[in-house]
Structures are given as C-alpha cells and as structure tokens.
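W.,

You were right to be curious about this one. When I first looked at the sequence I had no strong expectations either way, so I just let the prediction run and decided to look at it fresh. Below is the sequence, 172 residues in total, followed by the output.
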Amino acid sequence: QTLGIKDVRLTGGEPTLHPLFDRFVEGLSEKGVSIGLATNGLRLLWRQDAERILRRFARCWISIYGPTEGSHAWIHGGRRPTPVSTMIERVGDLTRRGCNLGISVLVTPGTTLRVRALLGQCASDGVRSVRLIAFQDDGRGKGLFSVPLAAWRKEFLQLRQNLANWPETKSI
C-alpha cells in the first residue's frame, strides 16, 4: 500500500502452488488491494475453505484448456484433468454463493463448433462470465496445429460474430 499499488493480478505458471499463496492473498486483501487470479483451479476449487479464499478476489478466472473433454485433456498434457463439466458445475456453484469467478476457455483450431455447447452448459450451471482465448501458435504451442494461421484467424473471427446471435451468450 505504501507504494500506491491498488490492483494486483496473479498469473502463472500456477500461482496457487506457491507455499505462501494464502498468506500473500490475505495480506493484500487486508490492505485493500484489488486482487485478480488466473488459475487452473485444481488446488483451489475443491478446498474446504474455497469460498473464504475466493471471496478475497475481485475476479478469478478458472482456465479450461479447450471446449471439449478431449481437447481439455489433450492440452492438459495427457494427465487426467478434472472434467470440464465438473469444473463448470463447481464454478457455477461458487458463483451462486457470491464468489466472483469466470471461466477462461482456450479455443483451438477445429474446436470452435463446440463452444456453443460449452456456453450452454455454463449458462445452465450458473456461470456468469466466460472469456474465449484464441490459441496462438507461438511459445509452448509452436507446431501443435498444422492449420494455416490465416485460416485459424478466420475461424475464430467467425466464432466471435456468431456469439452475438446465440441465445446461450445472453445469460452469461
């Protein structure tokens, strides 16, 4: 607070892995700092005290690695991740309890047609905020897809245009 910092965003890797994560969040919160978090949710969503810690965030984005179970598991590196449907249900439940959560979905080439079903589930399970993040063919993603970048941009832009006309987006 003495530095005039009023807003902090915690991103990763995975911020919740830090052994002092809870103390850091509580300290910032007690000083009146607005805190945002981007997390895969694995360590946070199912804690017994999840509501207590999540209420300290101005916004918490839970990452889902693709709009389908298959894309989520594939991008997750082959480990058995928590199913997308289970994560959406939990985020909806915690949102109804007053936590300011949203779901951040990585959209990859070939999965845009599945986004509508994901948004429908989010809407029916009480998730109020969803953001779609377009896959970028750089960094860790380099070479993962053989789709030409121009074709992928066109696919994603079409998805964005379609969102305005989908009833699922009206309730999110």
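Here's what jumped out at me. The helical segments are 21-30, 50-54, 69-75, 84-96, 115-125, 149-163. And, maybe more interesting for your project: The chain has a mean pLDDT of 88.

Coffee later to discuss?

I.
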